[in-house]
Amino acid sequence: MPIATDLSEAALNFKYENIPPEVVRETKRLILDALACAIGAFDAEPCRTCRDVARAYGGVGEATLIGERGKVAISSAIIANETMVRYLDFNDVLYFPKSPGKIGGAHPSDALPAALAVGERERASGKRVIEATIAAYETIGRMVDAFAEGLTPMGFHHGSVMSFAGAVIAGKLIGLDAVQMTHAMGIGASAAIGLAINDAEGEEYNNTKNIADGLMAERGVFAAYLAQRGFTGPERIIEGNKGFAHSLLRGVENYIRKPLPNDYYLMRTKMKFFPTESTNQGHLAATTLLVNEHDLKPQDIAEVVLRMSKRTVVHNGDPVKKYPRNKEAADHSAYFMTALGIVSRGRVTPASFNDAAYADPTIHGLIEKVTLEHGPEYDAITPAALVTIRTTDGRVLQKRVDHPRGTPENRMSDGEVRDKFIECAGSRMPIEQIDRVVETCHGLEQLDDIGELMSRLVVQA
């Protein structure tokens, strides 16, 4: 059986009535979390640009742009909405440590705009959207888990799995069978591969980081509609000659085919407590705990040593990002995030990222005091970290965090997820509307049409 067919059959077997209640509950929380990220990014320039282009592109109005009333073509909605979900780097993440310095991962919620757009077009119920979302998370999880070293170390963008997720989501919502879904995966993935330059060390980050996953997810959705009409693609898209594994993983043997796990990959997904790259979460949590426990101020800091995984040191210690000039680089800089955490006393929010912060001499002074250190003991438990702060009066303070808030071992409460939504959307939505959205997401299975949720996301002008 082709690997893509195996993935397709597994996806089709996820039926709402058979999914454990705790998995359904977490799915709804992840959907709410992703919508918070999208609303929080509504005013960001790259997000406005994508919405402007989506409206200018024209076409039949099929799906809503998050935060607006009007509808645009389904493809444009997927791309624009995913840009909003991704922009803050506050959305969820699923990854697996591989060899030291390398992880295989993805942001599963980047597929959610596809579920919302296709669901709205097809007038799908909340239950069906939940089902399709779970199937996408499980497909992403199985693929990323199977990669020997991950995609990024090979030079390809982690979002290259999104065409598979898009095919699964659309396939579930429009009623494809396993053969058709296999063809959709082949069509989409053969034409939707991303380059890792959008998330690479030594390169200054730019707006394209935000849109990449949406572009690739959209190709999977488009492919599903083609497959529904009999269009064919390479069924051996993963293991075939010059296919996904051969080309992206440098060999079929580097896709380690695994049986279905006993648990759900969705339950291993990490929410983010801070709006920053996922492996920054541990050291930032430890730093802010120390700052608040000892009432430290910037002038009290003589040195900060971050001991963490090799991957975090290499990826977030990239000299190009040490003094960031934009949000995309700032949230990937361990130096900047540490300084920001000290200055803000742990109140790092989406509003913390601005030109004034990037030029702040206090932050620049703290950056100079930060040292990154590889701790091999943390390679297998990323994003764990040990932070040592030496103060100007001679104290040596340490804090180790293995499981920062938002990880499966230390999940955010429902109240904290609501607080995150308020943090992201508070300037754009009154509290009554926010609570209505929260209530709708927690009761998503009761919606007959997912369009009801989209209509409740309109922000204030």
Q: Can you walk through the features of this model?
A:
It contains 19 helices and 8 strands. The protein starts with a helix and ends in a 6-residue tail after the last helix. 56% of the residues are buried. The chain is of the alpha+beta class and 461 residues long.
Properties at a glance:
single chain; 461 residues; alpha+beta; 2-methylcitrate dehydratase PrpD; 60s Ribosomal Protein L30, Chain: A; 8 strands
In short:
The protein has 461 residues and is α+β, with helices and mostly antiparallel strands. It has helices at residues 3-12, 21-40, 45-57, 74-87, 112-121, 126-146, 162-174, 178-190, 208-228, 244-248, 281-293, 310-316, 327-330, 334-344, 355-359, 361-367, 414-425, 431-442, 451-455, and strands at residues 63-64, 71-72, 94-97, 103-106, 301-308, 370-374, 385-391, 396-401. It is built from 19 helices and eight strands.
